């Protein structure tokens, strides 16, 4: 838990029609990977549109401590002078990843493959999250890893690794990516076989940096295979453009759909198939979301989204789509409160081990604001719009950025303002949240 003195609460009031255009900040997943892969490449890479959230800044600091020079240019681009996958040095102090699960898990993989020693630490929330899902496959490859009851602090000690074929028992792009990053330093073919395919940004970006990586589907598995015929992967420095984050777009998106009369354009939103589950679900619920100016940017599809207020209806959201919108359930649950009828969401087990127990936080936050629901171990059923949304509740965010942003959006359509106990963590992923929402006409103070 953070000290109470660091908390800053905020409240959102019922809004009148939202309007205007807003540009989304860079994608968090891609920003982490851009810094890590540019550091592991040989030569200088320039990165445009990097998300400057606290999570990515923690990854930047960690890569600096591993011997990479990274600086921000006057034009806002980030310059990364890479050292090659085997050029990293053991840091002299523990690597502190703050709140960032993606940063810590990916860099554990990188460090294991680089043959150096490092200790990994984080804040109270990150220190309670499971790390064995990454350490188990890394140990199978030969890594020497010590954890504290499966959690941080974790210590990795240099050891030679061998190639592996691993089937993760959770749907997690962080696990897949950690194995692929460890495999950069390993001769032979390393593969991850996913029963449920997760976001593929590591695979796409590794290919962009020149790695020999293939992705196939076989016998119901999605397989990502990295091949090193003669030794460590030789990554080539590359300039990158980071596309806008669909997980951040989720908040102004549900706000525009639910606040009567709204008509907004959200610019620069990435449309990767493994990240667009929320858009698909909201369209099925009757949401008017139009894709404008579809284009390619940074190896990904990007579009501007025109979003208009819509009468949403409750639907069944099957577990098969959960991985494609795993970070968007707080936003969907809030949108579902404004829908006609019940929205049932299945396959939510992983929400229990995010920045907070998100399922419990969503349940408590909706109840505190008069929204009827039922919830189980890995499912949630929200009964929308029965008598409008009362609001007036204080939401415990548990220092979780997405819980804070989602419930501030609930306040925009509630009879009474909705208050969240803390907003400091919003800076981990969406530092411009208040400015962007205010620019569209939302009253959040
Ligand atoms: C991420 C993967 C997901 C997601 C997280 C970012 C990534 O986590 O929740 O916000 O960038 O690989 P899991 O791998 O734990 O599902």
Largest sheet: 4 strands, mixed
Query: Would you identify the CATH H-level superfamily of the largest domain?
Result: Enolpyruvate transferase domain
Number of domains: 2
Q: Classify the beta-strand content into a percent band.
A: 25-35%
The pLDDT mean sits at 97
**How would you describe the oligomerization state of the chains in this entry?**
single chain
Discrete helix count? 13
Structural category is alpha/beta
Terminus-to-terminus distance:
24 Å
What is the CA-atom radius of gyration, in angstroms?
A: 21 Å
Q: Helical proportion?
A: 25-40%
Indicate the CATH class of the largest domain: Alpha Beta
CATH topology of the largest domain, which one? UDP-n-acetylglucosamine1-carboxyvinyl-transferase, Chain
What is the molecular shape?
Answer: globular
**Largest sheet: spatial strand order:** 2-15-17-16
Q: Which stretches are poorly predicted, pLDDT < 50 over at least 5 residues?
A: 1-5
- Distinct ligand kinds: shikimate-3-phosphate
The CATH architecture of the largest domain: Alpha-beta prism
Number of strands: 23
């Amino acid at each position: 838990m953070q000290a109470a003195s660091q908390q800053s609460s905020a409240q959102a009031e019922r809004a009148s029609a939202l309007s205007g255009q807003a540009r989304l900040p860079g994608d968090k997943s891609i920003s982490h990977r851009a810094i890590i892969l540019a550091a592991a490449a040989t030569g200088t890479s320039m990165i445009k549109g990097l998300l400057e959230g606290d999570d990515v800044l923690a990854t930047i600091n960690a890569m600096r401590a591993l011997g990479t020079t990274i600086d921000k240019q006057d034009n806002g681009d980030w310059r990364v002078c890479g050292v090659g996958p085997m050029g990293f040095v053991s840091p002299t102090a523990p690597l502190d990843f703050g709140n960032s699960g993606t940063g810590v898990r990916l860099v554990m993989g990188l460090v294991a493959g680089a043959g150096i020693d490092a200790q990994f630490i984080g804040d109270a929330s990150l220190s309670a999250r499971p790390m064995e899902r990454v350490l188990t496959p890394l140990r199978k490859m030969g890594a020497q890893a010590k954890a504290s009851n499966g959690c941080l602090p974790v210590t990795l000690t240099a050891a030679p690794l061998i190639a592996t074929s691993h089937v993760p028992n959770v749907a997690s792009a962080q696990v897949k990516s950690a194995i692929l990053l460890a495999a950069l330093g390993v001769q032979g073919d390393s593969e991850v076989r996913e029963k449920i395919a997760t976001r593929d940004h590591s695979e796409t970006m590794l290919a962009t940096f020149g790695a020999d990586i293939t992705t196939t589907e076989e016998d119901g598995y999605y397989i990502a295979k990295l091949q090193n015929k003669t030794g460590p992967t030789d990554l080539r420095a590359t300039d990158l453009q980071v596309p806008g984050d669909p997980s951040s777009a989720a908040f102004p998106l549900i706000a525009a759909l639910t606040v009567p009369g709204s008509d907004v354009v959200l610019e620069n939103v990435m449309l990767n198939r493994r990240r667009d589950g929320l858009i698909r679900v909201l369209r099925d619920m009757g949401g008017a979301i139009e894709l404008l100016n579809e284009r390619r940017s940074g190896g990904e599809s990007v579009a501007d989204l025109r979003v208009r207020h819509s009468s949403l209806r409750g639907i069944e959201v099957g577990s098969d789509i959960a991985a494609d919108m795993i970070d968007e359930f707080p936003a969907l649950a809030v949108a579902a409160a404004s829908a006609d009828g019940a929205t049932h969401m299945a396959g939510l087990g992983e929400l229990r081990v995010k920045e907070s127990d998100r399922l419990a936080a969503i349940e408590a936050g909706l109840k505190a604001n008069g929204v009827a629901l039922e919830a189980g171990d890995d499912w949630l059923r929200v009964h929308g719009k029965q008598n409008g949304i009362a609001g007036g509740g204080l939401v415990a965010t548990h220092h979780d950025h997405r819980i804070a942003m989602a419930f501030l959006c609930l306040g925009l359509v509630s009879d009474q303002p909705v208050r969240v106990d803390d907003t400091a963590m919003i800076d981990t992923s969406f530092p411009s949240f208040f400015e962007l929402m205010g620019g569209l006409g939302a009253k959040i103070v």
